[in-house]
Every structure is written in structure tokens, then in C-alpha cells.
Write a structure and sequence with these properties.
The protein has about 270 residues and is of the alpha/beta class. The protein is built from eight helices and seven strands, in the order βαααααβββααββαβ. The protein folds into two domains: about 200 residues, Alpha-Beta Complex (Lambda Exonuclease, Chain A), CATH 3.90.320; about 70 residues, no CATH class. Strands 1, 2, 3, 4, 5, 6 and 7 form a seven-stranded mixed sheet that branches. A hairpin with a 2-residue loop joins strand 5 and strand 6. The structure holds iron/sulfur cluster (SF4). The site of iron/sulfur cluster has 14 residues, from helix 2.
Length: about 270
């Protein structure tokens, strides 16, 4: 039985382009997109830790962006300034969108679980940016009957896909599996993706009724099978223009954008 350890971000990177995934594994280089994403995530984490909506205003959120700003990965000062303004605009949009329907119960929660897929053993590890308790009828014991949403903040410039497209993304399904493993007593677990765009937040709610979960599991099994069999052919797409290995790629040079990788330490493993 083959065994793999992967995060949702690694699954997304492999699905985008296996060749780029292979070429960038183990690289520690920080890109501008990584720096911006990390600063925005840290600002939101600390803002919520100090009370968030109802306790703090927009200016506190912007001040936290300044406190946690990272300068690595920028070509020059003007690129860094443009990124800083984008970060400010994204956080203003987050604040303007308001708290949403749920009550946050955790932030930056690192989780693991183990999944059996077509005879392979996949160890998933990932970080929930936020976990919300959604309104609904509570059950007889803590968690029983309630509803949970694990929230993922996206700062990248990609056009937000539709919820039904995201449902079949191995990365989003991996978040769902991690959440299902760690909140087994809740009647419903969903994934909420918040695209923090300067012009406004785009919210996508991804639920997994049994038929959708079965299809997503097949997609995930295909991706894991490709990784195990060493399928690393280039797959050109919207992310080629910012690809760090574009110069050595025979099929690159497409004119748009990319996604970043994440990392961190993780909590106890559970079996999904
Ligand atoms: S240039 Fe495009 S196709 Fe080539 S490795 Fe990079 S992302 Fe993949």
C-alpha cells in the first residue's frame, strides 16, 4: 500500500501543473504573492483574536497589516507598494462584508487526518483559517445536530470559480475531509471560501451531499494516483505567467496568474 502526506495547497499545486509541483517541492523561496497572503492572513488572525467584528474597527485591521507586513519576494519598492495597497483594499472589503452568518470558534487551526483511497493511504494535513459555528438547531450534546463551516481566505487574483466547480477540487474536498474528521458530531460540515478581492469579497459555500462527496472522492483518488505513479507532465494554464520554473518548461508562457503553497505545524491525526 502506497502512503502519501499532502496538504490541500500541495494538492492544488499538483492539480494546476504536475511539472511545476515537482520542480518547486522543497524550495524555500518566498514570492510576492506568498508575502501578501501571509500578511493578510496574520492581520485577520490577530484582529479576530482581539475581538474582531463588534470590538475592533477597520483601522485596527489595517494597522495589523502594517505590523505584519513582509517585504520578501518583491522586485522593487513600487511592486511592494502596489501589493500593500492591494492588501489594504482586500481588508477593507473584508470589513465591509461584515461578520457573515456564523460565530467564529477557532482561528488558524492545524489539523491532520488519514484517508484510505483505492488501496492507498493518504495523510492529509491542513490549516483552517477560521472555523464558524453556523446558525441551526443544536443537538442534545455539544456539536450534535449543529453546523460547522471551515473558512479559507484567498488573496490571489484568480477569478473565483463557482461553488459546484470548487466542490470537485481535491484541495477543497481535502478541507472537507479534515473538517469532517475533526467535527464528527456535527450534522453538517461545509467549506466556505472567501475571495478577498479589492473590489469586494466573493463568498463561496461548498456543501457535500453524498453524491457530490462520492464524485469529489473519485477526483481526489485520481490526483493521488497520479502522484503515486509519478505523472509529472506540464499542464499549462492561467498560472504559467508567474511560474518560477517557466524558463525551463517546454509548454509554459501563458499570460495570467498562479496560486501559492502553505506550510506549518499540525495537531493530532484523526482518521476520516
Ligand atoms: S510554465 Fe506552466 S506548464 Fe510549465 S511548469 Fe510552469 S505552470 Fe507548468
Amino acid at each position: 500500500m502506497a502512503e502519501l502526506q499532502l496538504s490541500p495547497s500541495q494538492l492544488a499545486a499538483y492539480q494546476d501543473c504536475p511539472r511545476r509541483y515537482l520542480a518547486t517541492q522543497g524550495q524555500r523561496e518566498t514570492t510576492a504573492a506568498m508575502s501578501l497572503g501571509a500578511a493578510v492572513h496574520e492581520a485577520l488572525f490577530h484582529w479576530h483574536q482581539r475581538g474582531g467584528f463588534g470590538m475592533l474597527g477597520q483601522e485596527a485591521l489595517l494597522a495589523l497589516l502594517a505590523d505584519h507586513w513582509r517585504r520578501e519576494g518583491y522586485a522593487d519598492r513600487s511592486a511592494e507598494a502596489a501589493s500593500y495597497h492591494r492588501g489594504q483594499a482586500s481588508l477593507r472589503a473584508y470589513y465591509a462584508a461584515g461578520p457573515g452568518p456564523g460565530v467564529p470558534i477557532a482561528h488558524e487551526a492545524y489539523r491532520r487526518c488519514t484517508v484510505q483511497l483505492h488501496g492507498h493511504r493518504l495523510q492529509l494535513r491542513g490549516r483552517f483559517d477560521r472555523v464558524d459555528l453556523l446558525p441551526g438547531i443544536a443537538g442534545p450534546s455539544p456539536g450534535a445536530g449543529g453546523r460547522i463551516a471551515v473558512v479559507d481566505y484567498k488573496v490571489s487574483r484568480i477569478e473565483p470559480p463557482l461553488a459546484r466547480q470548487l466542490a470537485l477540487s481535491p484541495a477543497i474536498f481535502a478541507y472537507y475531509l479534515l473538517a469532517r474528521a475533526h467535527y464528527p458530531h456535527y450534522a453538517e460540515v461545509r467549506v466556505t471560501v472567501l475571495y478577498l478581492r479589492p473590489e469586494g469579497v466573493v463568498r463561496r459555500e461548498i456543501a457535500y451531499p453524498p453524491a457530490v462527496a462520492a464524485r469529489a472522492r473519485e477526483w481526489l483518488a485520481d490526483v493521488v494516483g497520479g502522484l503515486i505513479e509519478g505523472e509529472m507532465q506540464p499542464r499549462s494554464g492561467a498560472f504559467c505567467v508567474r511560474c518560477r520554473v517557466q524558463d525551463s518548461c517546454p509548454t509554459g508562457h501563458c499570460p495570467t496568474l498562479t496560486l501559492g503553497l502553505e506550510g506549518g505545524s499540525y495537531g493530532p491525526t484523526k482518521v476520516c
